Fold:
Amino acid sequence: MSFWIRPAREDDLEEIVALNDLAFGGKEEGRIVRQLAESDDNVLSLVASDDNIIAGHIQFFRMKVDGQPTAVGLGPMSVHPDFQKTGIGSGLIQMGLMALEGAGEQIVFVLGHPDYYPRFGFSAELAKPFECQWSGDAFMALRLSDGAPADGRLTYPAAFG
Ligand SMILES: CC(C)(COP(=O)(O)OP(=O)(O)OC[C@H]1O[C@@H](n2cnc3c(N)ncnc32)[C@H](O)[C@@H]1OP(=O)(O)O)[C@@H](O)C(=O)NCCC(=O)NCCS
Structure:
């Protein structure tokens, strides 16, 4: 089976929420995706689809640095358990980062598996100088431009509570 990556459409939302519920085994990530989709904080939402089912989804959302909308957050992302470890997650991240760089975004943050995201260039070291409710190895950043903020106070969208 082969999947292609495209921007999520409005009528994908229920399937995307169900995919998040399945991949995470709970309702929290699906709720966040829904709330982001219905807000102004949605920056980019991509799906991996074969025109029949959605096998993967990645969400990017607006974050503020010192009150300015100069950063993006990654998450949640999910791949259907039947199709994990086949490269879909990697494809979604790479395509997403390419689109964000093309759109002039400067820096991306993620709270996620510390053994997974560094392979795409995310670094906990880079995230350390930022003031945030999260810290440690799982909180990582990736710079898309030299002019990206290097420190500051981060604000997450309301969907993250
Ligand atoms: C994490 C997830 C999105 C990865 O997607 P994927 O399509 O399976 O990933 P890829 O095929 O691109 O990459 C597979 C690699 O990721 C690694 N990986 C997958 N889940 C991982 C985890 N929880 N921690 C560390 N590495 C992980 C695999 O071991 C594999 O490594 P390898 O290339 O060295 O063999 C997917 O496993 C998933 O939906 N998991 C449940 C929900 C979740 O945890 N989402 C991410 C929250 S941060």
